[in-house]
Structures are given as C-alpha cells and as structure tokens.
Amino acid sequence: MGEGTIIAGVSSFYDVYQQGAVTRCKARGLFRKENITPVIGDHVRFSDQGYLEEILPRKNQLVRPAAANVDQVVVVFAIKNPNPHYPLLDRFLVESAQQSIQAVICLNKWDLKEDDQADEMTAVYESAGYQVIHTSAYLKEGIAELRQLLEGKVTVFTGPSGAGKSSLLNAVDSRLVLQTGQLSEKVQRGRNTTRHAKLIPLDSGNGFVADTPGFTSLHLEHIPYPDLGQYYPEFLPWLGDCRFTGCSHISEPDCGVKLGVRRGEISAQRYDSYSELYQEIRREQESNRWK
Ligand SMILES: Nc1nc2c(ncn2[C@@H]2O[C@H](COP(=O)(O)OP(=O)(O)OP(=O)(O)O)[C@@H](O)[C@H]2O)c(=O)[nH]1
Ligand SMILES: [Mg+2]
Ligand SMILES: [Zn+2]
C-alpha cells in the first residue's frame, strides 16, 4: 500500500506522486458509487496492484478548476490580449473565498501596458484586501516574487485562456516546458491550449503548483446566494450597519454596504459585479427549488 498526492487524472487513470516517484493508478467503481470523483490535490492510498483504494479527507475543494487541499489560488489575468473582464476576476475570487482559500491576483503581460487602467485596477483590488502582483512572462519580470509566493504551498493557477498561466510557470521553473498558445487573431481570445489540470512538484521539493485550463466564464450556482456578500472582503466591516438581517445589499434601505459605496470605501465596480452575480445565482437557485 502506498500513500501520495494525485497530480493528474485522465479518464479513469490517476497519477499519484509519492516522494519523487509517480504511480499510475486506476480508480475502482467504489468511488463512483459514493459519488466521489478523485481530483488533483487529493491525498490517496493506493494498492501495489495500482488501484486507488481510499481518498483521505479533504481540507477544501475547488469546483472549477477541480482541485482539493489547496492552500492558495493565483488568479492570472492579462492586462491586455485578452482584455481583462473584471466581473470574471471577481467570480474567481468568490470561488476561492467560499472555500476559505487565500487568493492572490497576478496581472500578467505588464510589458503591454499603455495606460493607467491596470494601475487603477490594482488600487481597487488592493483596497479590497487582495495582494496584487505584476508580471511579464515575456520580460521575466515579477517572476522571483511569484516563485517566492509558491514556496511550501499547494497553489492553483487559474484565470482565462490566454492570460499566460503556462507561460508564467515555464518562467518560474526552468525545467518546465508546458505548452503555450497563440491567441486567436480575430477576437484576441485564448485557444484553450492547456487541456488538463496538472499538479507540478516544485523543484525545491516543497510544494506543488497546478497549471489548469483557462475558461472564459464561471458559473457559481453552487454558492448559496444569501452568503455571497461574505465573500467580498471589503464588505465585511460594513455588514453590521445593515438594518435588516439577511440584507441583500441591493434593494433594502439603510444598508451598510451601500453606505460604504457612497462613501467611496467600497468600489462601485466591485459592488456592481456583486449585485449582478447575486441576482444571477438567486434566479438560478429559486427556479431550481421548484424543479
Ligand atoms: N506580451 C506578453 N505575452 C505573453 C505573456 N505571457 C504569455 N504571453 C503570450 O500569451 C499567449 C498565451 O499564453 P499561455 O501561457 O498559453 O496562456 P494560458 O493562460 O496558459 O492559456 P490556456 O492554457 O489556454 O488557459 C502566448 O502566445 C504567450 O506567448 C507576457 O507576459 N507578455
Ligand atoms: Mg495554459
Ligand atoms: Zn446591506
């Protein structure tokens, strides 16, 4: 019997990493019956015959990208090509916060900077309480800072296709030759170059980092809509000022969050993206209730 960490899974095979060695294992029907799908980051026991026998309890679990036992998420967005869609960034941050996973924002392709927009966004997210780092995989800028962030942790890289996740990891660890891809000419979108999530052991031997396929939208229907406000860290100091318990921070009077926005302490852009997401997941969850 061995014990290790799942670093990759394709169809029903899983690669399990244990002190530098990788064993390809097959999942038994057992997991399917219990409705558990093994994911990267899972701590597992496996038999000498190469079968996964047991998934050890998870400390947390990301739904998209699917990963377990994650210490940190690095959300990578390009400041240009493809142009950043900040409401999507907020969704990645909510997904991490809901699992109590620390998120760091990485604004990549800093070499393409032409105006102040990326600086303004940096200020918005820093004042919301996030660490924001600026990188260029192309000029190898900010790479040392990124490498330092990863040390000793299990980190998942996420973000839209074409943002530069795989390029950054290649820059962080010179042993890596992850495939990277051109953007499509017409719409400057990524082409989903990375197909499968993969957990990579750091060369220091202490920690892992996951390269994952990018996506261009993220549905958060698994997050109960009344909880959403808790996952915007800058809302927290204002929640005590809401007159109504269970305030949605949208239509009620005497709302602390709206007061925070009026006073300029909460960014209007972040508030608008909250409000849009709240209404979207509420609609979905209320219509599902009657199904
Ligand atoms: N100018 C510039 N281009 C970059 C930078 N980082 C990556 N690129 C380019 O952006 C394109 C996409 O990079 P990838 O690393 O494949 O992006 P990805 O996030 O892994 O994309 P998916 O695997 O599809 O999710 C490639 O053509 C890279 O060369 C950067 O810092 N500056
Ligand atoms: Mg990639
Ligand atoms: Zn409120």
UniProtKB/TrEMBL annotation:
Entry superkingdom: Bacteria
UniProt GO molecular function: GTP binding; GTPase activity; metal ion binding; rRNA binding
Listed PROSITE patterns: ENGC_GTPASE, G_CP
SUPFAM superfamilies: Nucleic acid-binding proteins (SSF50249), P-loop containing nucleoside triphosphate hydrolases (SSF52540)
Any single Gene Ontology cellular-component annotation: cytoplasm
Cited Pfam families: RsgA_GTPase, RsgA_N
Co-factor(s): Zn(2+)
One BP term from GO: ribosomal small subunit biogenesis
InterPro entries, sorted: G_CP_dom, NA-bd_OB-fold, P-loop_NTPase, Ribosome_biogen_GTPase_RsgA, RsgA_GTPase_dom, RsgA_N
Top-level EC class: hydrolase
Positions of Zn(2+) binding: 242, 247, 249, 255
Main localization, broad class: cytoplasm
Domain CP-type G: 59-218
Complexes and interactors: Monomer. Associates with 30S ribosomal subunit, binds 16S rRNA.
Protein name per its UniProtKB record: Small ribosomal subunit biogenesis GTPase RsgA
UniProt organism field: Bianquea renquensis
